[in-house]
Amino acid sequence: MSDRPSAPGGGRNTRHPTGIRVVIALLALFALVLGPAGYVRGLDAQAHASSAAEWFTIAFGAAVGIPLLAAAVATVAGDRKAALWSLALLAWPVIFVAALHMAL
User: Fold this and answer.
1) Could you read off the pLDDT of 40-95 as tens digits, one per residue?
2) Which of 32, 34, 58, 86 has its CA 20 to 30 A from that of 2?
3) What is the DSSP string of the chain?
């Protein structure tokens, strides 16, 4: 049982569904942009100018960590649809890595 108070009338507690969806959309945008950007920078890293491992770590954190964070935020907020869309973003790294390797 949850310690959260229930909504009036016994319905769902939807105080700020738009705000949660905006936050999830911003996190999704960061994941969609920063993941490929970090991966490309990792592929182009020179031995002395910058470390490829650092850029690949940033790319992985953005492409995998941010969608998991978004799913956690949506789950705590009680928005199942936003949580599922956030988890669907976990397919994005497979798509952009394959596309980049085919293009380069």
Assistant:
1) 999 888 765 668 889 999 999 999 999 999 999 999 998 899 999 999 999 999 99
2) 86
3) --SSPPPGGG----S-HHHHHHHHHHHHHHHHHHHHHHHHHHHT--TTT--HHHHHHHHHIIIIIHHHHHHHHHHHHT-HHHHHHHHHGGGHHHHHHHHHHHH-
- Rounded to two decimals, what is the model's pTM? 0.78
Burial of residue 27, with CB atoms counted within 10 A of its CB: 0-12 exposed, 13-18 middle, 19 or more buried: buried
**Residue tagged 């953005």 (tokens):** 62
**Dihedral sign, CA of 37, 43, 45, 50?**
positive
- The identity of residue 71, as a single letter, is A
Question: What is the rounded distance in angstroms from the CA atom of residue 54 to the CA atom of residue 71?
Answer: 25
Query: Which residue matches tokens 């935020």?
Result: 73
